[in-house]
């Protein structure tokens, strides 16, 4: 197989395991390219890509932009933390205005779950979901699984604990779908108010004690507390959260095994993750960032080939 | 006017009667006496058709005044007529709300020449905000006997208690779509596996069950009459069944679409399926079916809520709640008739709503005749509503109303 089964990347739940494997193989090749002295390839020459970000983003937008430039695509950026809707313009109008400048692909981040799906039914360009509210963040899940594979050799059979604010996390949902498709066992762990009530129906283990989750897993993916997405109170204070749900070096020292620590960034240091863990030999956080560019290059390259 | 309906099979709450000839004399419908030699203005062969007393919808929304672009009085009248409904109870959620004599008189004047009759649910609180009472007795003097805040629940227990007490002066009924708005806060779909998969905040069944339980207990304290609208959960069915057994004056209805869809259908973020209460689980649907069969649920309603394109063609969480449901009501019943009997279905839109309205009509002066097998295209040209927010729009549907009698009025919908 050399082509994806879909012309958009809307979410991990919409793609096949074969798609994921193809993205990994392609990303592996691009990663080699990224380590060459000349890091640019002409694969997407004459392809125009619009990065449309209706929510604040630094690393995801930079990662996409770098991936696009490494592939020689023409890139335009549109950022609006306060979405155009507030100015009276609808999402469709905003995107169509941009598309009328002859854009081939759209990378979009938006606070509304399902907004890339909505767009995909109404515009012609290929769409890549760069995070839609509390729904999915597929390229993050792909780079996370790719990084696990790189570190541990395989994803299948591995135990991955996702720790933190699962309720507001698009990373958690995409990770669950991706890891399960690749044969990993998944656990979610956090305060009960930050775990979706029906999360166990997705076939994941549920744990409320972080130390126990660390004891169970091979990989701990610690998530950021999404204070900006919490519309109501879910826990008493950041202090209490960090005391009872944060991951620190002492907890890792109690384990008599190797463990891999991941975080999608940006880290709230001292809240969900202490610096003595984030910067430790267990952490592959910066590898994740590096792999993010290769994964995004692979996704862009493969989608450009799907008509 | 004299019309003959030949070989018509009439459905009532009990049975489907064998085919008979019925005559309509401009006032009433009766079985034709073959001994009487009578000339008819029109004769219709109804051998393949079914019929019942005229249908009643206890919950539909008109946009006028204020939101005519969604549905005007005229367009809602056309939709009710086309769909076979002789009566529709209008919700008060207009701009301004139906909350004073002025709005009631306006609605009466504007609807007097329509085929179908409009009944009015008067606002229980000003602007349906759940705080200050409207002038309920003054509204009653204009003929309003049903009060409620329409699509908004009376969530303040003290307000609900006082309204239930106040209505007893004229034996009025409180209509309420009961749910706890704080438990449902920021929710868009039923809380369950699907809401988890699509990452959309869910509305737990608990929000409805808590409010229905609380309101039943308040009713037990105050006395009076209460009608629960569009219940959707197993828990609510159980609580209302118990309340009826205890002898409380409680009735209930469900939206017909609650039987046609489940929360699993929301997987593709179709905003036309975003409704309140949300589509629940399949086990809730089973409980609703049980409630229909044992009489816990008295009526099925269209819950017709027109929304213009700009309120629906957008991001899921920003889109408005609601679906239009009148012209698709018969096609929905046709689908349900594979599972439920026609007498049961017809009961829920005739004698059931009459019981809720306490308007038992002794005369046989309304009639809805329909073809349960006729296919038709539901599209821009057949749509009578100002809105098109239906998941069935642009589809071929089965089941079409043919003729309707409403007292002295007769209309041919389809020949």
UniProtKB/TrEMBL annotation, chain A:
Tell me the residue numbers annotated for binding carbamoyl phosphate. 59-60, 109, 137, 140, 265-266
From what superkingdom does this record's organism come? Bacteria
- Enzyme nomenclature, EC number: 2.1.3.2
PROSITE patterns per record:
CARBAMOYLTRANSFERASE (PS00097)
Q: InterPro entries from the entry? A: Asp/Orn_carbamoyltranf_P-bd (IPR006132), Asp/Orn_carbamoylTrfase (IPR006130), Asp/Orn_carbamoylTrfase_sf (IPR036901), Asp_carbamoyltransf (IPR002082), Asp_carbamoyltransf_Asp/Orn-bd (IPR006131)
The residues that hold L-aspartate are 87, 170, 224
**Entry's Gene Ontology molecular function annotations:** amino acid binding; aspartate carbamoyltransferase activity
Q: In which pathway does it act?
A: Pyrimidine metabolism; UMP biosynthesis via de novo pathway; (S)-dihydroorotate from bicarbonate: step 2/3
Signal peptide region: none
Q: How does it assemble?
A: Heterododecamer (2C3:3R2) of six catalytic PyrB chains organized as two trimers (C3), and six regulatory PyrI chains organized as three dimers (R2).
Please state which protein family the record places this protein in: Belongs to the aspartate/ornithine carbamoyltransferase superfamily. ATCase family.
What exactly does this protein do? Catalyzes the condensation of carbamoyl phosphate and aspartate to form carbamoyl aspartate and inorganic phosphate, the committed step in the de novo pyrimidine nucleotide biosynthesis pathway.
Q: Which named protein is this?
A: Aspartate carbamoyltransferase
Per the UniProt record, the source organism is Rhodonellum psychrophilum GCM71 = DSM 17998
List the taxonomic lineage: Bacteria, Pseudomonadati, Bacteroidota, Cytophagia, Cytophagales
Q: What gene is behind this protein?
A: pyrB
TrEMBL record, chain B:
* Keyword hit for Zinc: no
What keywords tag this UniProt record? Pyrimidine biosynthesis
Record flagged with keyword Nucleotide-binding: no
Using the record's annotation, list all stretches that form the Dihydroorotase catalytic domain.
54-234
Instruction: Note the Gene3D superfamilies from the entry.
Output: Metal-dependent hydrolases, Urease, subunit C, domain 1
Q: Which PANTHER family match?
A: ALLANTOINASE
Q: What is this protein called?
A: Dihydroorotase
Provide the species name: Rhodonellum ikkaensis
Upper lineage: Bacteria, Pseudomonadati, Bacteroidota, Cytophagia, Cytophagales
